[in-house]
UniProtKB/TrEMBL annotation:
GO terms for molecular function: DNA binding. GO terms for biological process: DNA integration; DNA recombination; establishment of integrated proviral latency; symbiont entry into host cell; viral genome integration into host DNA. Belongs to the 'phage' integrase family. Residues 86-165 form the Core-binding (CB) domain. InterPro entries: CB, DNA_brk_join_enz, Integrase-like_cat_sf, Integrase_catalytic, Integrase_recombinase_N, Phage_Integrase. This is Tyr recombinase domain-containing protein. Residues 185-358 form the Tyr recombinase domain. Keywords: DNA integration, DNA recombination, DNA-binding, Viral genome integration, Virus entry into host cell.
Length: 368
C-alpha cells in the first residue's frame, strides 16, 4: 500500500485507505518472528472498523489466528497433498490408462461410478476401513442387487488397490475384503418349442450379421468374444476347422467346422473385412448387435436368457443329453481348460445313459 494514501487511526498498527468509491479498507501491521507483516483486514462496507481491525491484530500477535500469508501457504500445502494422494479415483484412472484393451472396460467404468465412487473415490486404499466395506455391501443389498453384482464391485475395488500396491504408488487395503458367495453356475437351456421359435425368427431376420452370429453360437458353442474376433483366415473350409485364437497370447484351439456351421459361413455375406462379424468400419466388433434383443423378444425367449452365452449352453446341453458325446469330447468342443467346467453338464449325460439303460426294461418285461 503506498504510504501517502495511508490514514492512521487511534489504534497502533491499524490504518486505512480511502477508496475512490468512498469506502475504506483497513490494514494491520505487526511483527512476528522478527518479520514485519502487513495484511488487509477488510472494508468498512463489509462491517470492518478500526477497533475490529485492532482486535484482529491482537489475535495475530497472540498467535490465536493465522495471517493471510500463513493461510495461503497452508492451503498450498493442502492442495499439493491432495494432488499427491493416490485416491481410488486417481488410481482407477491410471489403471484404465495402462490397460487400453481391457476386457469389460465399459462395465468396470460403469460399476466404479455407480457403486464405488460415492464412498471410495476420494479415499486412498490404506484409508479404507471395515466400516466402509460393510457400508458398501449394505447399500448394494438395499438396492436388491445380486451377490454376483456386489462381488464384481468389490473385485474392482481390490483390483484397483492391488494395481496401486504393485506399481508402488501407495499401500493397499490393510485387510482382506470378504467376498459374497456366488453360485455362478448358470446353465441356460431352451425348450424344443423355444428353440423352434428362435430358428423361425432367425430365418425371417433381416439383420443377417446378427442372425448368423446366433446360429454360429448355437451350432459351435463359440463364446461371444470368440465370435467377435473370428477372422476368415481362422476358417479352413478344406480341413473343416475353425481356429480360436487365444486373446491372452496362450495356445490357440481348433474346433471342428460342422456341416451346419459350414453352411452358415459359406452363405454369409461378404463385407470386405477380415472379420466374419465385423464392427464399425470393418474393425473388431466391440458391442453386441442391438437386433439380438429384438430377436429374443420376437422368439418369446425367457427374460433372463442371455442370447450368445445362452446358446453356447444350449449347444452343450444338447450334445450332453444326446448320450452320444462323452464329457471329455464335450470339454474339447467347448474349449474348456478344466474338466471341472464341463461337469455342469454331467447330469444330462447321466440322464441320457439312464434312458438308454432303461431300454432293457422295455424289451424284457417281467412275467406277471
Amino acid at each position: 500500500v503506498p504510504k501517502q494514501s495511508r490514514n492512521s487511526t487511534r489504534h497502533s498498527g491499524v490504518f486505512f485507505v480511502e477508496l475512490d468509491s468512498g469506502d475504506q479498507t483497513f490494514f494491520i501491521r505487526y511483527k512476528k518472528d522478527r518479520k514485519l507483516i502487513e495484511e488487509r483486514a477488510g472494508r468498512k462496507s463489509q462491517g470492518w472498523t478500526a477497533a475490529k481491525a485492532n482486535r484482529l491484530r491482537t489475535e495475530r500477535l497472540a498467535g490465536k489466528s493465522e495471517s493471510n500469508v500463513e493461510k495461503r501457504a497452508r492451503e498450498k500445502v493442502r492442495k499439493e497433498s491432495v494432488e499427491n494422494r493416490w485416491t481410488f479415483q486417481k488410481i482407477f484412472d491410471e489403471y484404465l490408462a495402462s490397460r487400453p484393451d481391457l476386457k469389460g472396460r465399459a462395465n468396470d467404468v460403469r460399476r466404479f461410478k455407480r457403486y464405488l465412487g460415492k464412498i471410495f473415490a476420494h479415499k486412498t486404499p490404506e484409508e479404507v476401513t471395515h466400516f466402509d466395506i460393510n457400508k458398501l455391501k449394505q447399500g448394494l443389498h438395499k438396492k436388491k442387487l445380486k451377490p454376483a453384482t456386489i462381488r464384481h464391485a468389490l473385485e474392482i475395488l481390490n483390483r484397483t488397490a492391488n494395481f496401486a500396491a504393485k506399481r508402488g504408488l501407495c499401500a493397499g487395503i490393510s485387510f482382506v475384503v470378504e467376498m459374497p458367495k456366488v453360485n455362478n453356475i448358470k446353465t441356460e437351456d431352451l425348450t424344443p418349442e423355444e428353440l423352434s421359435r428362435l430358428i423361425k425368427v432367425l430365418d425371417e431376420e433381416q439383420d443377417i450379421q446378427a442372425s448368423n452370429m446366433l446360429r454360429m453360437a448355437l451350432y459351435t458353442g463359440m463364446r461371444r468374444g470368440e465370435l467377435f474376433s473370428l477372422k476368415w483366415s481362422d476358417v479352413n473350409f478344406r480341413r473343416k476347422t475353425i481356429t480360436i485364437r487365444d486373446p491372452k497370447g496362450g495356445l490357440d484351439v481348433t474346433i471342428p467346422l460342422n456341416k451346419m456351421a459350414e453352411k452358415v459361413l459359406k452363405e454369409h455375406p461378404d463385407t470386405a473385412s477380415e472379420f466374419v462379424f465385423p464392427g464399425e468400419g470393418g474393425q473388431l466388433r466391440k458391442k453386441t448387435p442391438r437386433s439380438l434383443n429384438r430377436i429374443k423378444l420376437k422368439a418369446q425367449l425367457p427374460e433372463d436368457f442371455r442370447m450368445l452365452h445362452g446358446l453356447r449352453h444350449v449347444y452343450a446341453s444338447t450334445l450332453a443329453s444326446s448320450g452320444k458325446v462323452d464329457l471329455y469330447t464335450l470339454q474339447k468342443l467347448l474349449t474348456h481348460k478344466s474338466p471341472l467346467m464341463t461337469q455342469r453338464y454331467a447330469h444330462l449325460r447321466n440322464e441320457a445313459l439312464m434312458d438308454a439303460s432303461n431300454v432293457i426294461s422295455e424289451i424284457i418285461k417281467p412275467e406277471t
